[in-house]
Amino acid sequence: MSTSTGLSLSTPPDESAVARATAFGIDITLLIENLRLTPTERVQRLQQMLDSVVALQAEVKTRRERQAQSV
Amino acid sequence: MSATQFQRLVALLAEAEVEFVVIGGLAATVHGSAYVTYDVDVCYDRSPQNVERLCRALAAVHPRLRGVPQDVPFQFDPPTVLSGLNFTLDTDLGALDLLGEIPPLGEFRDVAAHSEVADLFGYQVRVLSLEALIQAKRAAGRPKDLLVIPELEALLELRKRPPE
Q: Which of A33, B32, B90, B127 has most Cβ atoms within 10 angstroms of its Cβ?
């Protein structure tokens, strides 16, 4: 389980998986940042993101219901 | 809908000494993926003793079938688990998918052989290796699985690069 890297964004070889992922639209900086975290920290970060997404979905739903009632 | 509680679900299984391997999106996160997953996927050992531990552990969080009307009778107990294979559950701690096998890897023993041990919240937890995760995603072949392969392959390459 990798937790530390000496990674940089120096130009990867054209045929590298990193180059293919970049062309696919993947933000490699996020991956490098994640690889500097421990597995627990990675899951904690996921939890924070998921909590935010769920809270946002609930807020949107509440607003839509309010709008529907006011029409 | 409430967010799945990753730490509490992992702790629940680990403390009950359930034999399992973290797979799917959560395994990808453990390996460094930036995709957001909504559930916990695990491959579980189907030995009667382990299924007993699994059922006892999950009883506290009221497992029920996800996406099935509440009035459909369902009891999560050893006979039910042993007569089925894969279960997509909702629990009080969020969504939990239990898989008895993963193509093309096989059953728990085969999946465990393709796993690494990670320290998650202080528990030593088996997690499907990045190489095997890519293999499983490719075998699944669904658009949602294929979509994450470029990122997983990039992670594999980044991990293998020597420090600069």
A: B32
